[in-house]
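Q: what sequence does this backbone want?
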């Protein structure tokens, strides 16, 4: 099966999960665990010798997780928001993934906290190139929008079809390279990852989503530094 057909199958399942509230998408999607690294109780924007040492230890930890294969992606969001970075783990269990995230020196010291989510995607990510170099992708969190409703109706079914058709279009354009739902049925519904030239281009693409236009979903877009070679 070609990569694009494989991705489209994954996105089909993703759309069903987002709209129908499934927590365990079937078929080719597999469960990963995502740690959103947020500002912790000891967060400070002030640079000191202590924070420099902590940051160095944090980077070394991220590198070791990538090299071991425990993390398939590790990288910072670079727009200086509440979420500072993301780990995506290939872990035997949620407890293992949480333990790996909490062992990060920045988390253990309280500078960051790790908010854990089960996350489903097709297994299309590749091993990071060595030596590791970082490149910019654009990540959109899909959240419940102001018009969100859990009910399945004729209107939501039609919106799902339009949403899915737009996903197909973006995938065929090779702009949307990874997508998948969160499995814990919270405010966060899933993610899109775009490989495009700018944040502005990614924003234009996210705004074409019919579910976003209808207010069923809302999108938060961020520049994301990821290891080169990981994304399909």
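A:
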């Amino acid at each position: 099966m070609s990569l694009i057909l494989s991705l489209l199958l994954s996105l089909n399942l993703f759309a069903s999960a987002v709209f129908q509230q499934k927590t365990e998408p079937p078929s080719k999607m597999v469960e990963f665990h995502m740690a959103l690294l947020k500002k912790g109780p000891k967060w400070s924007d002030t640079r000191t010798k202590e924070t420099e040492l902590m940051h160095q230890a944090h980077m070394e930890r991220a590198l070791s997780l990538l090299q071991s294969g425990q993390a398939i992606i590790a990288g910072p969001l670079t727009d200086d928001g509440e979420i500072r970075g993301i780990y995506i783990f290939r872990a035997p269990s949620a407890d293992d993934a949480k333990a790996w995230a909490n062992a990060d020196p920045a988390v253990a010291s309280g500078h960051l906290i790790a908010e854990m989510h089960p996350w489903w995607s097709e297994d299309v990510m590749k091993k990071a190139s060595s030596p590791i170099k970082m490149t910019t992708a654009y990540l959109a969190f899909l959240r419940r929008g102001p018009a969100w409703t859990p009910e399945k109706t004729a209107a939501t079914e039609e919106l799902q079809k339009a949403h899915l058709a737009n996903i197909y279009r973006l995938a065929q354009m090779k702009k949307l390279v990874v997508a998948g739902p969160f499995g814990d049925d919270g405010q966060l519904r899933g993610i899109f990852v775009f490989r495009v030239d700018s944040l502005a281009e990614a924003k234009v693409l996210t705004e074409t989503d019919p579910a976003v236009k209808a207010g069923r979903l809302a999108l938060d877009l961020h520049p994301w530094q990821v290891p080169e070679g990981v994304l399909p």
